[in-house]
Amino acid sequence: MFYRPADGHGLPHNPFNAIVSPRPIGWVSTRGTEGHDNLAPYSFFNACAYVPPQVMFCSTSAKPDRDDTKDSLAQIRETGVFCINIVEYAAREAMNATSEFFGKEVDEFTAAGIDRAECETIACSRVAGAPANLECRMTQIVKLEGATNFAVFGEVTGVHIRDNCLVDGIFDVLTFNPLSRMGYRDYTVVREKFELKRPGE
């Protein structure tokens, strides 16, 4: 099969995000200038640089009460900061609950019954007890093709690691089993790993 996205795929459901998978989930927490906390998952997310450490996520839809975007990006525009919370398999239901389209005044931490803690380097809440949290200062927002597509880049200014996720000095993902997004309504979980050395190592 071959198709041009501009012409449509002719399938019951769009295969694009199933092709580029699995994808890590950035559970983004923000706080607006009015003090409302927000928490929402984004599967167009990844780390993108080592020094300084940087991450990015993309927001690709909008809400009627936020004009051209959703709460996360709207609040990042206001404050310039956000936190990425790493999603473990055990938090899958809580993460999914925060994907609901709530009104901008709704606090997803409260709505989904998620414990929060204050960040250290930015004025923002984080998911307490998450395997890791990345406190970020927004560096740029890039408008992408499409009416509501924006890429948000941030420099990591603080890192929280849950103590039991460190094994012999290594952040061991098998201690918490990261949740990843596939296509459609499908997810997967990391339960095994293997090592490959680069040529010459």
Automatic annotation (TrEMBL):
One Pfam family, short name: Flavin_Reduct
InterPro entries: Flavin_Rdtase-like_dom, Split_barrel_FMN-bd
Molecular function in Gene Ontology: FMN binding; oxidoreductase activity, acting on the CH-NH group of donors, NAD or NADP as acceptor
Record domain Flavin reductase like: where: 20-173
PANTHER family assigned: BLR2425 PROTEIN (PTHR43812), FLAVIN REDUCTASE LIKE DOMAIN-CONTAINING PROTEIN (PTHR43812:SF2)
Protein name (database record): Flavin reductase family protein
Classification of source organism: Bacteria, Pseudomonadati, Pseudomonadota, Alphaproteobacteria, Rhodobacterales
